[in-house]
Write a sequence for this structure.
């Protein structure tokens, strides 16, 4: 295997990894702040991709030129708004009423919601049953650096994800609002007593995480050029797995976990003979081993025990 | 005493038959409305009617369920050998058995399992491979299917010793996906995407179960054979699970569900109980898979996907977590209703999703909620 090919694969792994990272950040935010696992997050990802499809269709017919940077920005913003809206609706309709129920109930209700969302797209999106071609929102030429073919959408994906995650970091660590989120995550009751509107923090956390998940859907559509109503399920599980590998509740762990999962998956395909056929099994077995032997994730020392 | 129960069950059965037999959706809706009105009327007529009926049932559980089973024996004759509805009834009862198994894990022991279909798949493939490729006869293969599924249950239980809650959900989902992927990719043994075809039908006492059943006055299609086999299996399962739930073992599982740490502090061996809960729960799945393989004669990996696991779980929730009659009733209702509306087959999964969400929001206790055991001695009314 040549060096160029390995670098090529590393780049692919990176673009897959940042997508998982964005998903995992959502999972970890929901768990860290609200203590729920949102199994419908994968469907938010899928709806993000379909939202991008619909938005770009509308914008192109409204006269925006295909492949312009303006189109991309408008689509990105609308995807984030769609994701945020779905997150807000979900928080208010199914998460909030279940706040005092046992955790298994919350988990199951998000599972039910995910089925409803997936089937709704299949039934009500025009021609939603079949895979849909995703328009090339941004047109750039592939180029070579030292014999390595660089696809522009990989660069775009990685840069965008890096920007979003940095933005999230700044939001959480440097702003007053981020302090509220951290306080709520640390101790809900105490935060309430300090005058933080915990209820609103929950809502905004859900909006933030869902918007990031929807952007991951947009990235997936852009890099594979095709979207399908079933695409959310497996990515959702992978995102959850990445969050678990990174340690649930730990945002930076989630980023690392997503990257790690992306690399492991790509490498399993490249180096293990017949690896592509057992791709899911390999990555899931790794995740299970992680859970059993390092239940706290990569940065194990940062987890907390609850009694 | 038991006359009331018999009457109530017969009325339910007639209503059920009417819903099944009448093809016009409008008339079915009418029947449902009439039954609902009757029920409301009874409530007006006698205020504590339902409470009375309920206590009647809960005091004579054994009588009630054996009577229900005897009544149900007449189903193949009453539908006049309609093979379609017999098949649906068979599937409904198989789902009921799965729901019982899953209920033991998730309802009673509190171990979330979102990969239950994998056990069914394992059982089906064990029977398929043994009977098709090795020429083993069906019944020992069925037993082996259950045992193999149990062993896999223990394998899945091993990580469950270390993880719980959300993590366990992830592990079980992963388990289901891994099993499915392995079945898809070991083509030489499992037939890959094509699955296994022409699995031989079981033979009981020299009688091939794939031939029509002749009762003397009526000849029933072969599905009736399986109907009777499955109803016996279901009755055995209900009996077994019921005894298990009322034993000390069942109480220990409950203690584990409520608080693992506290249970451990009281000296409960969590390792043993977790592994046993998984093994017993999985056994039912394996048997169901085996019967399914013998009945349909064709199995493929797609039949046992994540959707199936969710479906069985929604049946358990709909019936009420940790409620045995609830699991059976939930499975039957959730299998029959979508068949009634099979013109809208596309909406089936949507329907299940909405059932899960609305059930958890508005009826988290389920249809027939489980009552916590407070008194272990028999209530005083019995003595009279």
């Amino acid at each position: 295997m040549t060096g160029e090919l390995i670098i090529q694969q590393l780049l692919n792994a990176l673009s897959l990894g940042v997508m998982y990272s964005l998903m995992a950040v959502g999972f970890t935010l929901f768990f860290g702040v609200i203590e729920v696992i949102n199994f419908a997050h994968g469907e938010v990802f899928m709806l993000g991709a379909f939202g991008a499809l619909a938005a770009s269709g509308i914008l192109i017919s409204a006269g925006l030129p295909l492949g312009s940077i303006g189109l991309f920005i408008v689509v990105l913003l609308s995807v984030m708004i769609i994701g945020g809206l779905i997150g807000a609706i979900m928080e208010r309709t199914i998460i909030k009423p279940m706040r005092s129920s046992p955790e298994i109930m919350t988990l199951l209700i998000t599972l039910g919601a995910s089925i409803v969302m997936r089937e709704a797209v299949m039934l009500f999106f025009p021609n939603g049953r079949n895979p849909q071609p995703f328009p090339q929102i941004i047109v750039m030429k592939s180029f070579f650096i030292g014999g390595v073919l660089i696809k522009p959408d990989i660069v775009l994906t990685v840069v965008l994800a890096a920007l979003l995650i940095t933005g999230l970091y700044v939001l959480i660590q440097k702003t007053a609002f981020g302090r509220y989120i951290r306080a709520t995550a640390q101790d809900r009751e105490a935060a309430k007593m300090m005058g933080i509107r915990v209820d609103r923090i929950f809502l905004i956390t859900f909006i933030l995480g869902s918007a990031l998940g929807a952007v991951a859907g947009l990235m997936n559509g852009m890099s594979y050029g095709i979207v399908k109503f079933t695409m959310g399920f497996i990515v959702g599980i992978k995102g959850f797995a990445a969050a678990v590998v990174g340690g649930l509740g730990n945002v930076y762990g989630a980023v690392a976990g997503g990257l790690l999962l992306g690399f492991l998956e790509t490498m399993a395909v490249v180096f293990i003979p017949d690896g592509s056929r057992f791709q899911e099994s390999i990555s899931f077995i790794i995740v299970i081993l992680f859970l059993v032997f390092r239940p706290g994730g990569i940065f194990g020392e940062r987890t907390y025990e609850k009694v | 005493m038991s006359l009331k129960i018999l009457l109530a069950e017969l009325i339910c059965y007639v209503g059920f038959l009417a819903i099944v037999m009448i093809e016009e959706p409008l008339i079915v809706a009418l029947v449902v409305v009439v039954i609902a009105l009757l029920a409301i009327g009874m409530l007006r007529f006698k205020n504590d009617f339902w409470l009375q009926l309920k206590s009647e049932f809960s005091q004579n559980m054994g009588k009630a369920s054996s009577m229900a089973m005897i009544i149900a024996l007449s189903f193949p004759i009453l539908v006049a050998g309609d093979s379609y509805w017999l098949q649906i009834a068979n599937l409904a009862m198989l789902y009921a058995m799965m729901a019982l198994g899953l209920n033991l894990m998730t309802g009673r022991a509190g171990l979330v399992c979102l990969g239950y279909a994998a056990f069914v798949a394992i059982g089906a493939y064990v029977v398929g491979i043994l009977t098709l490729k090795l020429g083993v006869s069906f019944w020992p293969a069925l037993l082996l299917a259950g045992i193999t599924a149990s062993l896999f249950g223990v394998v899945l239980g091993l990580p469950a010793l270390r993880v719980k809650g959300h993590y366990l959900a992830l592990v079980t989902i992963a388990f289901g996906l891994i099993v499915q992927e392995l079945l898809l990719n070991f083509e030489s043994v499992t037939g890959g995407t094509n699955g296994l075809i022409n699995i031989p039908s079981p033979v009981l006492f020299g009688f091939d179960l794939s031939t029509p059943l002749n009762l003397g006055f009526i000849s029933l299609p072969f599905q009736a054979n399986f109907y009777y086999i499955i109803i016996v299996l279901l009755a055995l399962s209900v009996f077994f699970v019921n005894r298990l739930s009322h034993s000390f073992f069942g109480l220990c599982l409950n203690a584990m569900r409520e608080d693992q740490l506290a249970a451990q502090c009281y000296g409960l061996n969590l390792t043993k109980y977790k592994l046993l809960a998984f093994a017993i729960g999985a056994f039912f799945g394996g048997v169901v898979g085996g019967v399914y393989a013998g009945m349909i004669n064709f199995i493929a990996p797609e039949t046992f996907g994540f959707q199936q696991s969710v479906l069985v779980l929604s049946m358990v929730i709909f019936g009420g977590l940790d409620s045995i009659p609830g699991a059976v009733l939930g499975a039957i209702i959730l299998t029959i209703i979508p068949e009634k509306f099979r013109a809208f087959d596309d909406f089936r999964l949507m329907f299940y999703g909405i059932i899960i969400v609305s059930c958890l929001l508005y009826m988290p206790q389920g249809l027939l909620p489980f009552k916590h055991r407070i008194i272990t001695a028999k209530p005083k009314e019995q003595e009279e």
Summary: The CA atoms of residues 163 and 381 of chain B lie 45 Å apart. Chain B touches chain A at residues 106, 110, 112, 114, 158-159, 162-163, 165-167, 169-171, 173-174, 177-178, 181-182, 184-185, 261, 306, 310, 313-314, 317, 346-347, 349-350, 352-357, 360-361, 364 (CB under 8 Å). The two ends of chain B are 13 Å apart (CA to CA).
